[in-house]
Request: fold
Amino acid sequence: MMCGVLSAQVGDIADDLLRYGEPATSKWLLACSEDELVRVCSVADWLLLYGPTEVSGSSMMIAKACALAAVYVKEGAPRVLARSRRLPAERIPELVATDDAKRRRPSYVLQMAAPKHYAVGDDARVAWQAEVPEAR
Reply:
């Protein structure tokens, strides 16, 4: 089966984590395993499709979905982000990582081998009050 197709650069997600007040998860993400990165993108993909929506009815921003997913994968449980809104980019410290680490994306081969949204647990579905995907 195919996993979600969301693919984001580690540096972009790490920057957004800093902007949401999650420096420990930002640092973790820069060094996470390939499987952990695939899991982050799997959860983020699920959040965009089935997670909470904005007041307008649109899905959440990709940056927020990726940040929530990274926190969930790192900590093993869903929770809200430290900040509900991102700080402006100029108010966060610059990432200390190699350019290769910042440009890394999830392994396409691992994504294609994983079941769709395999990293999304029942705890996440309940916490984010989302419908089970098969029900939609």
